[in-house]
Each structure stands twice: as structure tokens, then as C-alpha cells.
Sequence to fold (380 residues):
Amino acid sequence: MKIAIVCYPTFGGSGVVATELGIALAERGHEVHFITYQQPVRLALLSTNIHYHEVSVPEYALFHYQPYELALSSKLVDMVKLYGIELLHVHYAIPHAYAGYMAKQMLKEQGIHIPMVTTLHGTDITLVGKHPFYKTAVNFSINQSDVVTSVSQSLKDDTLELFDIHKPISVIPNFIEIDHYHSSYTDCQRSLMAEDHERILTHISNFRKVKRIPDVISIFKNVLDKMPAKLLMVGEGPERALAEELCMKYGILDKVLFLGKSNEIDKILCFSDLFLLPSQAESFGLAALEAMINRTPVVSSNAGGLSEVNIEGETGFLCPVGDVHSMSDRAIYLLEDDKRLEKFKEQAYKRAVYFDLENILPLYEAVYRSALESFKLEQV
Ligand code: GMT
Fold:
């Protein structure tokens, strides 16, 4: 199949999922065209089956806001015609489903019919998408998609509750590629980060408010009161300065390492003892899954789809959003006993295996096939 993938190219989970999916599809012989404003961060190597087309939005004095959707939909039309692309797969509804719909309409005028699969990822529904300024257009473009998928049952439920959707929504969870983890790292550089007797706690995100960064710092402070430990903060975003201020205020700045954006999160997770994810909202929690496949148990909030990934008392613990006290207790309980920690590490790994790409990729391929088939029937 010739598939166009539209996504955010940044460090966020939706971009990671879209990129890894595209790479895997290309490895299986599909021709994949990434169409976005910058080369996706995880798209390191371009192969013969992978193409990347950049969407540029030139500055113009009259524009207060640059019309990205317009440029994206034009690019989609041009690339579909040039490469004979058969299907559009847009990740994150805003504004991709809207731009995809416009592209479809323009192509239709020219006698080219192409189905669009929209994957809902999280805040495109639960935070931004439901905002009254966007809701009408988001609702419309989801309904105009030929197939809609969501990354968890929880996100599907939220979508049906918040919007007026008259399309079936298929749940296709996030995935990891187990093959990448078979050879455990021989260059595990734990000693660069912590003393042997210190536990390592890790948080990875784009440091937005929804991640509740102050809770991460407070939980770590409570752990530190009970045992020697280090906190690795991976990522960049608006709440970073606040996190640093809090560490300063609590006098723990020397125990917290801010590592910035990293393409080597597996190297960091392979020596982490616990992953913290106290998010306000989390449709799935790809970062938690990436921790688990690296044998790192998770203490998280119970927001959104986290309970579909992190299993209470097995792969970690889930507490109500904002309940720093319980999350700290759970973290200490896990970290204070070597045997217990080891057991949770193994269980976290076993659970993560369920989300192997081998199991998930065929679900996307089936969705593509059904989109193409039902679309062809509609055109008859
Ligand atoms: O929706 C977002 O906040 C952005 C998005 C991203 O690009 O990081 O994250 C969402 O999509 C991920 C991949 O499907 C999920 O694993 C994350 O849980 C989800 N984030 C939220 O729901 C906050």
C-alpha cells in the first residue's frame, strides 16, 4: 500500500507512535510518505520505502497566524497526485483530520478518491479538542474520517461522551517493538547517574501542565526522606523552570538531573528503578509502556487509559490524580525492598510484551484494508 502519514514530528507520544508505525510499515514493504513540518525526531534513517515531504508555511506580513492547515492540505493533494498515494493516515485530530478532509475534497474535484484514517491520541479530544473554539471543527472532521481509531478504550469513551460521533471507533493501543529490547544494554551507564546505593527514579515527558510536574518533584522529595535516591527528569517544556525552582526550594537540586530531550530513553530506563507519571490526563501513557519494557515499574495516577497499561499491584501502582501522599507511599513501598522491586520489574516487562508491535501492526493493516475496501464500495 502507499500510505501518507501526517503527524507532529516532535517528541510527543503521538509523533513517536506515528513514526514507529511508519517505519514498521515500510519494513513490511509498504510505501510510506511522512508529511509534516519537520523531519520526525525518531525518523533517523530514510529507507527506500520511506519518503519525507516537508510542509513549509512562508511568513507573510498580513498573517497574524500562519495558515498551516492550508499548506498541509495543499501538500497532501500534491503528494497524493505525484506518488499515487492510496490512503491518508492522520495522527492527532487537530488540525490534521481537518486538513486531511480538505485534501480529500480537493482530490475528489479532480476525480481522485482516497480514504482517510484518523487516530485520536489524547488531548486532541480531552483538552484542546473539546474547547468551544475548536469543538465544532474537530467533531466535523472526525465524522468525515473514513475510519477512526483511538489509542485506548478510555479515550474512545471520552470521545463518545464529549463529541457527537456517528462513526465506529476501533481501539488500537500504543505499542513497543520488542526486538529492540532483546539484547539488553551492555553499556548500561548507571554509574554516571547515581551511586550504587541510590535508587533511580525517572520521569519522561514534554513537561506540560497536564503532566503535573510539581507532583513528580514532591513524590521524589518524600522518597528521598526515606532512602538515598536520584531523580532523572527527561524532556523539555513549559514546566521545567518551575520544577527547578521547586528542587531549589526543597534543597534537593543536587539529587535531580535534568537531562533535556533525549533520543536515548531506553538507555536511561534500563537502569531506572521506578517511573513516575502522575498526569492529570493520559489517554494511554506510552512513556509508561516504554518504562515497563525496560523492566521499570510505574507509579502513576489513575487518569484516562493508564489502568489499561499499568496494572495495580502487578506492574506498579495507580493513585487518584494529585494524591501525592499515596503515590509517595507506593513508591517507597516498591523501592524499600530489593526482592519486591525485582518482582515488579519482571511483571512490568511481562505486561509490556503484550503491546509488542507484532500484535498491534496487523490491527492497523486490517484497518487500512477495510478503509480501502469500504471506500471502494462507496464509490461504486
Ligand atoms: O495528547 C497529547 O497530549 C499529546 C500526545 C503526544 O503527542 O504526546 O500524547 C497522547 O498520545 C500518546 C500516544 O498515543 C499517549 O500515549 C499519551 O497518553 C497521550 N497524552 C495524553 O493523553 C495527555
